Amino acid sequence: MKKLIGLKKTKTAIFISGTGSNLKNLIKFSKKKKSPISIDLIISNTHNAKGLKYSRKYNIQKKVISFKNNKLAEEKIFHFLLVKNIKFICLAGFMKILSKNFIKKFKGKIVNIHPSLLPKYKGLNTHKKAIENNDKFAGCSVHFVTAKVDSGKIIMQKKVKIKKGDTIASLTKKVLKKEHLLYPAAIKKIYN
Ligand code: GRF
Questions:
Q1: Distance 22 CA to ligand 1 centre (A)
Q2: Which of 29, 179, 182 to mutate to test the pocket of ligand 1 (most atoms within 8 A of CB)?
Q3: In Å, what is the CA distance from 162 to each residue of 83, 112, 122, 172?
Q4: pTM check: above 0.90
Q5: Which one of the listed residues 79, 114, 127, 143 is annotated catalytic?
Q6: Which atom of ligand 1 lies nearest, measured to the CA of 179?
Q7: Which residue owns the Cα nearest ligand 1 atom 8?
Q8: How far apart are the C-alpha atoms of 126 and 84, rounded to whole Å?
């Protein structure tokens, strides 16, 4: 991807459905001089996403789009992305699956963070699976989004050791900490 550091930052939208800790972290990152992205739009599929509060806190426009009708939802999102001249999309805990058609329009411009060492444990309950399988490590991955869920090219990963006595909650906390380091690092890697 084109090197943009020092030039204008790439206008980016973050898609969320929940807490938004990665969103908050990416907003903070985006404000750094060395960040290749600026965060210009927050998209959520639900009003219940706690992360929506960062819209007001950081003065970033938000749009809540119902996915009752997926096609319509994607059309609306596409419209807002065009209006804001968005060139890059980060999925951060976004719980809806985007269609092939939508992904095609932003080919190579949509990334996702997933709480496992992909290709292991696509989908949900990743930490539970890692503990149940007595894995030595858990972790997180940032990857390009393709039509196949959690299957696009991996950009970067970070590992954490699973210790005796680790629970889903303790692992979630440890991995999330790593996610907050990983997502900005992966974005820098894309733009360098
Ligand atoms: C993270 O664990 C991310 O990897 C997964 O969903 C969670 C979102 O957390 N895709 P948050 O909303 O960013 O706090």
A1: 6
A2: 179
A3: 45, 23, 18, 11
A4: yes
A5: 114
A6: 4
A7: 93
A8: 34
Nearest CA to ligand 1 atom 7: 93
What residues contact residue 153 under an 8 Å CB cut-off, 6+ apart?
143, 144, 146
Which one-letter amino acid corresponds to residue 192? N
In 3D space, the residue among 11, 3, 168 whose CA is nearest the CA of residue 86 turns out to be 11
Residue 47 among the catalytic residues: no
Q: What is the pLDDT of residues 127-167, one digit of tens each?
A: 999 999 999 999 999 999 999 999 999 999 999 999 999 99
Distance of CA 136 to the CA centre of its chain: 25
Sign, CA dihedral 26-32-38-41, equals positive
Candidates 40, 48, 38; CA nearest to 17 is 48
